[in-house]
Structure formats: structure tokens, C-alpha cells
Amino acid sequence: GTAKCPVYPTELVFALDMSEDVTLAAFERMRAIVISLLRIIKLSESNCPTGARISIVSYNTNTRYLIRFSEFQRNNLLLEAVQKIPLERSSGRRNIGAAMRFIARNVFKRVRQGVLVRKVALFFTSGLSQDATSINTAVLEFGALDITPVVIAFNEVPNVRRAFSMDDTRRFQLLIWERQQDERLESITYCTLCYDKCKPDTNCEVTVPPPVMVNMDITYVMDSSGSIDSDEFERAKDFVSTMLDHFVITSEPRGSDEGARVALVQQAPQSFISNRSISPVNKEFDLITYSGKNLMKRHIQESVHQLEGPSAIGHALQWTIDNIFFKAPKPRQHRVIFTILGSKTSSWDRQKLREVALQAKCQGFIMFTLALGNNITSSELTELSSFPAEQHLVQLGRVLKLEMAYAQKFSRVFLNLLKRGMNSYPSQELQEECESLNRGDAQQQVAVLERIPFPEFGGIDGGGNVEELTESRVIEEITEATQEPVDVRQEEKYDFEEYFTEGNAEEAKLEEYGEAPEKNEENLKETVETGAAYANSDACTVDHDGGECQDYNLKWHYDKEQKVCSPFWYGGCGGNKNRFETQEECEALCIASS
């Protein structure tokens, strides 16, 4: 008899190309293929983890739902509905990458729970797609979310072919069927829809990928400040340790030109608060300390402890570039700075971060960021991440096992993207800024960057389906940067704002540690003296803030609950506008005006 199909519970999405150049004949081919595949698939008749659930979307520039997972539980009714789907005439250009990302983030947001549940997305395309970047990003996200894509193309699609070359699991399929007689549905049924990993078909090449061989020097810069939660710190340690299994580490870090070399630093020691001339990092090991992952893992497990100092990312990056990368012999082809953050940087470090991050990008460093939690500003995350940000940044709302697994998978696929040379470093978008930096212009042009939308996670409401909870939470909490959000449904809108980053070419030449304490003291003094300049009505409406440093001085603040001015100890930097030099100054602004 006919083998059961699907063997495992499957969430299957079909994406129909309805771009401006799609002919009626091409559309009817797509619909006929969908119907042929649906005839051999058994639908799930309940929420139990068996059979397949089907969703169908159409796409061009935007993506639109035609059939949702929950709508059909009987094959005959589903087939009738598919036969009635018409070709929608549209002026929209084709963007298969945006459609892929929409499906990953929205259609697969609600799936059944279970370790055996499979997610498959089958795309039809009648021609070239306009944006290679979104296709590359989609491959990263599909790999991280364990979604298996199949693309059926009626013409050659080099952007998709190149992006799918990043997949080393052999799960991603690209089928070029220019003529109807080219169609071989068996390759989809046996190797994707009806695939049985316990009894795989001999023609299927699905494999467990080996560690990635990529020629790189990579330094992990871990947030070890007092602002990061201890559980997040331990998760960050585990993440670094696990990532060592995903790429080949050289056994000869001093001599061999092949394989990766790894360094690890933590930022920042407690003493760096008061003495800016010391190192802002604890160097755990550099690029030539260890010749294998096991020694690195032991060091991470036994010797890496939370420093609980200030967050000084900018200073830490500068030290890392000068003392880890530039001092290592035989630099590798790729130099990667992998920053793991759980908190925003200190106020006195922000300008340093802007300067050093821009300089590093202009020097060709690849900057990847893993953000744990929602306490980091989007501007800092963008500064710390190479372009395009959605390929170099992962932000996790909460740091649980599923979320960390997503980060590991995303980072692993990114290594294949790096190996394949998909992006240029520095990117074309930074060309003018880097030229200004190299010329040493007195004033750089202010760069307008797109703000990354980070949807907030509000949790699963009481009415949520238990079967859908796990995957739903992961996708909602994993809020990577989005370059081209697809606005399809009213409830799925993204809110964009613009923000500015300012580069100052006069200070582009980085100071060396131990030689610039006077300048830091001067900056600190300037920060302390800004209290008087904050005198405006906003000062009376915010709670007072003691600041981030420990150089304490007596100041005054307005207590809006008690409606009085009270003294408090100010640490010397940071804080907010509710800070006054004298009681009289506080009362003159806040009490007299109330």
C-alpha cells in the first residue's frame, strides 16, 4: 500500500507568485502542482500532532493570506478551495525574500508543539526576484527556525541559488522547471513532504552538516557587567562554549593558515570605573592561546566569572582590536568581533562606542551582535552590527533554552554566509563615512540610519492554544533587525522611526590605553557639570537617578510625590535632569512653578 504521508506532523505553506509578470498559464501550472501534492497528503483532522496542516499565501511586493492553517481539516474541501483561487492581476514586483521572511515570522508564528513537528514552505516563482539581501536573510532565519524551504522556479533564479548554497544540511531544495515536462514531483514528495528520517529514500541527500571550515579570527566580547543578570551571564558562557562545536578550530594557531582562531574577553572590571587608564577587559584567552576547542571549553567552564563592573563596550572594543587582533601573527581572511550584550553601555562610553565601531567597520571587521533581553538601545545595537543589520544581529527577548538554540543556529548559518562571501566589509552603505574617516575631515556628514523595529513581547494570553505555545514564544521573542518588513495584515504593522549617529573624524584616531587618562577625566568633569544645564520643566517630572559612577557628591532632587526638594548622593556621571546643585535652585524651578 501507499506509505503514510506525511510521516511526521507537518506544517506546510504554499506561496503562489502573483507578481506583475506572471501569466495565466504560469499561474495555472502553480495551482496544478499544489493540487497534485495535496492529493497525496493526509490532512490533520484535529490539533493532535498527526498529519499536515496547510496554509496558502500569494506574494509579489507584499504577501497576503489566502488560506490559514486552521481553516481546513478535510482534503476534499481544501482541494475545492484551491481550485477556486484566481490569479490576481497586480503591478507589484516580485520579492520572494520578503515573502520568505513574512512566512517565517507570521505564518509559522502559530504551529503545533512537538519535537517531531516539521515546518515546510514551498515557493513558486515565475522569474527573477528584486532583492538578494532579503533572500540571504530569509535563509538565515529559515535555518535558525528549522524551516525547510523548497523553491520551484519556472526560470533560472541565481539569487536564490546563491543564497541556498549557504545551507549545508541539504534540506533546502531549488527546482528549475522551465517546461511542464521538467516537473518531477517525486523529488519533493520523497525528500521533503513524505521524508522519513528513520528510513530515508536513497535519492535524498539530507545530512548532518560537519563543522564549518571558515578562515577567520573571531573574538567573543562578553558583557560581564553588574547590569547583566547572572542567569543571562551563564547562558552567554554556554553559548560561546556551544558555538565552538560549529566551526573548525585550527590546531596550529601560530602557524597554520587554515581554520579559525578564537579569543574571549570580558568587559569590564570593577576598577575601570575609577581608573580609566587600566585595561577595560579581562582577557580570558587570545587568538593563539589554545589549539583546540576542549581547552577553550574547560577555561570557559572553570575560569570565567562575572566581573560585575561597569558596561564599557566602546573601550572594550578598542582594546580588543589593538591588543587581540592587531598583535596576533598571520591574520586570517575574516576578522570577526562577536559581541554578547545584556545591558546598554555606560553614558561615558557612548561616544567611544560610536567612534570605535565606525572605525572597526571601515577597517573591514565583521561585527556580529547577540543581545540578551530588551535593555539595550537600538542605536547601540546598530552601531555594534555590520550591514545589513538583520544578518548581523539577533536580539532575544528572554534567555531560555529555545531562544538560545535559535541564536546558535542563526550564528552557524551566518558562518556559511561569511564563508561564501555574500557581503562586503565595509559595506557600500558606509563608503562615504569611511572615506571621510580616512581623510580626517573636521566634520563628518551625519548618517541617517533606519531604526530597527523591535516588537515587544507581551506573552501568550490566557486563551492561547497549548499546542502553539512553544514555537509562538520563540518567534515572538526573537526580534532580529528587519530591513524590509512586509506590511500585509493590519495587525502586523511595523513602526519605523529614524535616528541619527554622529561620527567625529577629529577623534577617529583611537587613543591607546594608559595614555589618555587626562582626556577621560575631562570628559567625566564635563558630564558632572551638565547638571545646571538640565534646568527645565522636565526635571520636575522624572524620578531622580543616582547615575552610573561612584564619585559621589551631594545634589538635590525634586520629589514629585512629597512635593519637596530633597538631598541625594550623585555618582558623577549619567543620571537625568532631576538634579540640582542647591535646594534653592530646585525649589525655584519645581515648587515655584507648580
From TrEMBL:
Q: Name one GO molecular function term.
A: serine-type endopeptidase inhibitor activity
Compartments it resides in: Secreted, Extracellular space, Extracellular matrix
Q: Where does the record place the BPTI/Kunitz inhibitor domain? A: 540-590
Q: Which InterPro entries match?
A: ECM_Assembly_Org (IPR050525), Kunitz_BPTI (IPR002223), Kunitz_BPTI_sf (IPR036880), Prtase_inh_Kunz-CS (IPR020901), VWF_A (IPR002035), vWFA_dom_sf (IPR036465)
- Keywords assigned: Collagen, Disulfide bond, Extracellular matrix, Secreted
One GO cellular component term of this record is: collagen trimer
Q: Which domain of life is it from?
A: Eukaryota
Please give one Pfam family short name.
VWA
- Positions of the VWFA domain: 11-156, 217-410
Query: Native species of this protein?
Result: Chelydra serpentina (Snapping turtle)
- Would you tell me the protein name for this molecule? Collagen, type VI, alpha 6
TM spans, by residue? none
